[in-house]
Amino acid sequence: MKKHNFSAGPCILPQEVFQEASEAILDFNNSGLSIMEISHRSAGFVSVMEEARELALELLGLNNKGYKALFLQGGASMQFLMTAYNLLNKKAAYLNTGTWSSKAIKEAELFGEIIEVASSKDQNFNYIPKTFSIPDDADYFHCTSNNTIFGTQMKSFPNTSKSMVCDMSSDIFSRSLDFSKFDLIYAGAQKNMGPAGTTLVVVKEDILGKVDRKIPSMMDYAVHISKDSMFNTPAVYAVYVSLLTLRWIKKNGGIAAMEKRNDEKAELLYAEIDRNPLFKGFAAREDRSPMNATFNITNDSLKDRFDDAWKAAGVNGLNGHRSVGGYRASMYNALPLESVQVVVDVMKELENKA
Ligand SMILES: *Cc1c(COP(=O)(O)O)cnc(C)c1O
């Protein structure tokens, strides 16, 4: 039986994407060859890469606006250093909203002075700091739009004349934003876009070429752009499956339609977390993430019973991250509303039987 998959990442993708992806392993586009055995320079794969890059920009509303999309390797974690390598001359401003922001800061510190403009570490990152100022002499401002581990999401972004760099790994393509506010967006594929192994980078070309240091080719966005994201062998299969997901998003109404479904799912679950006395939300209400809902059980003696019940209902991946504990329901684009209803029903049943 197919599970209700709330895994935080790698995570659920649309069932029809899995179907198509599996077919291409045996026979890619009736070519008599597997997607895994063809050259990345073949016409078949070059068109996959080109369509994926185009579609990513189109869905974000960023085509013909000076942006380039790249599918790189090394995960979002590689972007922690690659962004700094390419953009940081002397000083950069970072908003620290969780584990991933902290890791981005640690890497960037190898390249220059990092000003942490605000941090919510004092409250175990259960909220998003809202008042901070970005120093005038910062080369860029970096933030994390959605904090996968703590279940918080930035609902607004500062208006700044500085370049804005954002780690959108866990909420890319999930909600409408004015993406043109950002100069560089990166996202590991495995949270909402595809399998692990590739990372989408969307970069405004005119912010590049301004640092003094020499940049190794593999770390240099300009090199990857000049080679159409094929400087070296890309993660062929991960890019292909990401393309299938991007097509699925477009076919199903684009980001606006995703957002509507995601909001419905989030409202259903958060309403139950707030109503049911056996549960308590972790993140500050106004900062709650529709992608990752974090919550605790208020009566520890019921924990085993709850765990048995959701597992018996076919639910997977509801355990919280070790740094927060409790539970985390990740409700990415492909997760159906019915799966959320299953969890809500288990929560209600626990209350009725307690
Ligand atoms: C998962 C995650 C990362 C790390 O991604 P990798 O691809 O494993 O390097 C970074 N940032 C955020 C917001 C994430 O959710």
Strand content: 15-25%
Molecular shape: globular
Record field, number of beta strands: 14
Largest sheet: 7 strands, mixed
Placed side by side, the strands forming the largest sheet appear as 2-10-9-8-5-3-4
> Share of helix among residues?
25-40%
CATH superfamily of the largest domain: Type I PLP-dependent aspartate aminotransferase-like (Major domain)
What is the string of SSEs from the N terminus onward?
Answer: EHHEHEHEEEEEEEHHHEEHEEH
CATH topology of the largest domain: Aspartate Aminotransferase, domain 2
How would you summarize this macromolecular structure in one to three sentences?
The chain is of the alpha/beta class and 354 residues long. It has helices at residues 15-26, 43-59, 75-87, 99-108, 221-226, 236-251, 254-275, 303-312, 337-353, and strands spanning 4-5, 67-72, 91-96, 113-119, 140-144, 146-147, 152-153, 163-167, 184-188, 199-204, 279-281, 292-297, 315-316, 327-330.
Task: Please provide a written account of the structure.
It is a single chain. The chain is an alpha/beta fold and 354 residues long. The protein folds into two domains: 15-251, Aspartate Aminotransferase, domain 2, CATH 3.40.640.10; 254-353, Aspartate Aminotransferase, domain 1 (Alpha-Beta Complex). The protein contains nine helices and 14 strands. The strands form four sheets. It has a seven-stranded mixed sheet, sandwiched between helices. Strands 11-12-14 form a three-stranded antiparallel sheet, with helices on one face. Strands 1-13 form a two-stranded parallel ribbon. Strand 6 and strand 7 (152-153) form a beta hairpin. Helix 2 packs across helix 6. Bound molecules: pyridoxal-5'-phosphate. Pyridoxal-5'-phosphate (PLP) binds next to helix 3. The site of pyridoxal-5'-phosphate has 12 residues, from helix 3.
